[in-house]
Amino acid sequence: MNASDRTPADLLRSALAADPARPLVTFYDDATGERVELSVATFANWVAKTANLLQDELAAEPGDRLALLLPAHWQSAVWLIAAASAGVTVEIGGDPADADLVVSGPDTLDAARACGGERVALALRPLGGRFPEPPAGFADYAVEVPSQGDRFAPYAPVDPDAAALVVDGVELSGAELVARARADAAELGLTAGSRVLTGRSFGTWEGLSTGLFAPLAAGGSVVLCRHLDRLPEDGLRRRVETEQVTHTR
């Protein structure tokens, strides 16, 4: 990737310039049988739409704090890069009561209602489907995001040295996040074309790094698996072969 990249959004732009058609995130939910594959271009389109939703519809500004209450999921990965693109700090599992806005999955809606700012809910249904009935007090992401623009430009340049992520009680700037992702990629031996399979939670830096940031920094891709414990051992072997996985974490 480009050595001058200093934010997560920079990493995605470099990936888009290098090879927009290659897979970036392949997601499995072994509780539902869902499989979704997003190329770099498709992932970047979701990021742009989500960043536009943040900036224009939710009026999020650089420095705002977003409590992210989502599991490891392809839509969680989208939100992570979209927030960074808009200069919004993501707090993984953050306290909604202390956040400027909250993004919640279906299992954390009660906790998310403590947020006094904007609230967005994701049903996490196959193919990004909407809630059968929108939860009261929340914007349904699947309803709001399709109409957003396919290109995103922040109103103000994002400062690489501003806080981008809070996880495990540690705050990282965009530049620090990129540096850690590159270091992890080197430690794991990831290079362009590497394909990482992981079932780790997004609740830790290690999960976020192996599930998104390190492969992105290396020019690789990720096979992100939710409920991997429900997959038979032989099923995992077949998935590794079918998805041409080079690294498992």
Produce the secondary structure layout.
Layout (H helix, E strand, L loop, with lengths): L7 H11 L4 E7 L4 E6 H18 L7 E5 L4 H13 L2 E4 L8 E4 L4 H4 L5 E4 L17 E2 H4 L18 E5 L2 E4 H15 L6 E4 L6 H14 L2 E6 L6 H10 L4 E2 L1
Parallel strand pairs: 1-11, 3-4, 3-5, 4-8, 5-6, 6-7, 10-11, 10-12
Antiparallel strand pairs: 1-2, 8-9
Helix pairs in contact: 2-3, 6-7
Task: Write a concise keyword list for the protein shown above.
single chain; about 250 residues; alpha/beta; 5-stranded mixed beta sheet; 8 helices; globular
Structure description:
- This protein has 249 residues and is of the alpha/beta class.
- 36% of the residues lie in helices and 21% in strands.
- The chain has helices spanning 8-18, 40-57, 74-86, 109-112, 141-144, 174-188, 205-218, 233-242; strands at 23-29, 34-39, 65-69, 89-92, 101-104, 118-121, 139-140, 163-167, 170-173, 195-198, 221-226, 247-248.
- The strands form 2 sheets. A 7-stranded mixed β-sheet has the order 7-6-5-3-4-8-9.
- The protein is globular and about 45 Å long.
Main β sheet profile: 7 strands, mixed
Total beta strand runs: 12
Q: State the secondary-structure class.
A: alpha/beta
How would you describe the shape? globular
Question: Spans with pLDDT under 50 lasting ≥5 residues?
Answer: none
How large, in whole angstroms, is the Cα Rg? 17 Å
- Percentage of residues assigned to helices: 25-40%
Give the integer mean of the pLDDT values.
Answer: 97
Order of helices and strands: HEEHEHEEHEEHEEHEHEHE
